[in-house]
Amino acid sequence: MTTVLGIETSCDETAAAVVVDGTDVRSNVVASQVDLHRKYGGVVPEIASRAHIEWLDGVLRQALEEAACGRDDINVIAVTQKPGLVGSLLIGVTMAKALSWAWSKPLVCVDHVLAHACSAAIEVLPPPWPAVALIVSGGHSSLYLVRDFDSVERLGFTTDDAAGEAFDKVAAVLGLAYPGGPEIERVSRHGDPKAVDFPRTMLAPDSLDFSFSGIKTAVLYHVHGPGKTSGGLEKLTPQDVADIAASFQAAVVDVLIRKTLRAVDRAGVDRVVLGGGVAANTCLREGLAASCAERRLTFHAAPLRYCLDNAAMIAALGYHQFVRGDTADWDVDAQAD
Fold first, then answer.
1. Of the candidates 119, 126, 128, which has an alpha carbon nearest to the alpha carbon of residue 309?
2. How many CB atoms lie within 10 A of CB 70?
3. So what's the pLDDT on residue 125?
4. Can you give the residue ranges of every domain in the chain?
5. Mean pLDDT of all residues in 49-72
6. Is 23 helix (H, G, I), strand (E, B) or coil?
């Protein structure tokens, strides 16, 4: 039995978890900073870093208490090393190195996005590999071919705005609160997804990359007028806002699903997994599940508790890295990209 303490501080969630053998989640504590950043309309890196400094010790203690274990029960320390806000990452990496040294425990450094790609497998036995993994978060919209925990190939990535970024920016255009994803989904329930024919950017015919800057601009000009960035919002009724939000959401989800199915055809697999913060979006989860069912593909979505940034996925993937001997030295540093 291998018990892993995971630490996640890549952006604006301070998280710690205890996971046994990569599947048995004993604790998963997440302290969200949303309230700290809401009035700024997005994450402020300096505020995020300071909050991690203030909160991480308490979050770690809570994770250990909930798991009913102490330093002697922990076998491995796993931490998010990349990608993310470098200041935030440094807090977690420094804490992990300190614990590794003080407790004489091996250290494992985990790629945050790859952890999202494997998050759907945390409580699934046997794991759902090989599969195409669609990872949709605030800063990343990516497709991976996951053959196993130690064999992950990136098939496509974001060339400009990721889906999560587009949700936040479009929410701001529509006068909705931060974070934008949940607000767009909430308002969209009362809107017509066919009210506005927003563009679906597919790039080249065989491309698996994503670009959501165009639809963000299309929404901006639809609201304010061609070439304008202000003046139109006050003319919209609540129903207009709902229709625009629903149409925007439908366009983004359509692109994500079509690209995922394109990746399935390319990879020649019959399984799809979904992870990342935007994977909590009901329209995406249900739409991708339905599309997979139509094509008789097996579909696994990460449970909602593992969609947003969390340390359980870091500890789970960290376990598999440790088993294959992928440990880090104490001179390892955080990497923004």
1. 119
2. 10
3. 87
4. 3-119+308-323, 126-302
5. 97
6. coil
**Looking at residues 242-251, what average pLDDT do you find?**
98
Query: Is 3-119+308-323's fold the same as 126-302's?
Result: yes
> Taking the alpha carbons of 56, 61, 64, 70 in that order, is the dihedral positive or negative?
positive
What are the CA-CA distances from residue 30 to residues 62, 195, 292, 307, 316 (Å)? 10, 38, 31, 12, 16
Residue 128: alpha-carbon gap to chain centroid:
19
Q: Which carries the bigger pLDDT value, residue 193 or residue 205?
A: 193
Q: CATH number for 3-119+308-323: choose from 2.60.40.10, 3.40.50.300, 3.90.1150.10, 3.30.420.40.
A: 3.30.420.40
Give the closest residue to 79 by CA, choosing from 116, 117, 110, 122: 110
Q: In CATH, which superfamily holds the domain spanning 126-302?
A: ATPase, nucleotide binding domain (3.30.420.40)
The Cα 289–Cα 35 span in angstroms is 32
Is 307 in contact with 119 (CB distance < 8 Å)?
Answer: yes
How would you label 42-58 residue by residue, b for 16+ Cβ within 10 Å and e otherwise?
ebbeeebbbbbbebbee
Predicted TM-score of the model (pTM): 0.94
Q: pLDDT grade, residue 124 (50/70/90)?
A: confident
Name the residue among 2, 12, 86, 19 with its Cα closest to residue 311.
Answer: 19
